[in-house]
Write a structure and sequence with these properties.
Elements: E1 2-11, E2 14-24, E3 29-33, H1 40-48, E4 55-60, E5 63-64, E6 75-78, H2 90-100, H3 106-115, H4 131-143, E7 149-153, H5 161-176, E8 180-184, H6 188-194, E9 197-202, E10 205-208, H7 211-219
Parallel strand pairs: 3-8, 3-9, 6-7, 7-8
Antiparallel strand pairs: 1-2, 1-4, 4-5, 9-10
Bound molecules: adenosine-5'-triphosphate and magnesium ion.
Adenosine-5'-triphosphate binds at residues 11, 16, 34, 36-42.
């Protein structure tokens, strides 16, 4: 479903991704681990069409990202800190974003907010949201269009214990419905509980890690 073919990404002299080849299949949760600055976010951005690879390509459902389409339309994502209009309520923010993609209904927005534990009728402006509430809104945004692919960069950031449990259960449910989910995370437990396969990025290379290796890499990482 997602083919990463010989993808390299450099910024000036710095080679962040070096000839990466991975195929991701539907119905699985994939973990991406690696130290700070190893290239996890850059890889996810290349998949979502937010960064163009220096070399190689990303094919989603047979179409090349950035060539056959600017952005893949079957992908929901949350990358780094989601940004919202701070003078609008959560619902109004999602409604505004949904207007860009017309097939999202008010009911979809209401449901996705409820799923992540936010009150869709709360008039509170997003500028007054806590960090965890903003993160939940970001996840609601990623799922509101019911995409087949979810790309989540540190999705548990700022969530409390209940939030983490809720979102873990949600992701496992979506996986069982056949979605393809890719998660970059520093949290060892999220990777252990959630992921069917784990890839480690190191020195520009990305390779499948055995559980044991992934534990070693994670033990070495800053949490
Ligand atoms: N737009 C950019 N321009 C220049 N360099 C960049 C850019 N985006 C990322 N980099 C560099 O690419 C490298 C990988 O960054 P990336 O954000 O992918 O790391 P990461 O693995 O996600 O780290 P973290 O665990 O801190 O989130 C870093 O050295 C970073 O400075
Ligand atoms: Mg990152």
């Amino acid at each position: 479903m997602i083919e990463i073919n010989n993808v390299s990404k450099s910024f000036g002299e710095q080679v962040v991704l070096n000839e990466i080849d991975i195929h991701f299949e539907e119905g699985k949760i994939y973990g991406i681990i690696g130290r700070n600055g190893s290239g996890k976010t850059v890889l996810l951005k290349c998949i979502c069409g937010l960064l163009a690879p220096t070399k190689g390509n990303v094919i989603i459902d047979g179409k090349a990202v950035g060539k056959d389409m600017d952005y893949p339309d079957n992908v929901g994502f949350i990358i780094e800190n989601p940004s919202f209009l701070k003078h609008y309520s959560g619902f109004k923010n999602l409604k505004y974003l949904a207007s860009i993609r017309r097939k999202i209904t008010d009911e979809d927005i209401i449901n996705s907010m409820k799923i992540v534990g936010l009150d869709p009728y709360d008039k509170k402006k997003v500028g007054k949201y806590s960090l965890g509430m903003r993160q939940r809104l970001g996840i609601a945004q990623a799922i509101m269009e019911k995409p087949d692919i979810l790309i989540l960069d540190e999705p548990m950031n700022s969530l409390d214990n209940k939030g983490v449990t809720d979102i873990r259960n949600l992701l496992l449910k979506l996986r069982d419905q056949g979605k393809l989910i890719i998660i970059a995370s520093h949290v060892k437990e999220d990777i252990d509980v959630l992921c069917d396969e784990v890839y480690g990025i190191c020195d520009g290379k990305c390779s499948l890690t055995a559980r044991k290796d992934s534990e070693e890499i994670q033990a070495d990482m800053v949490v």
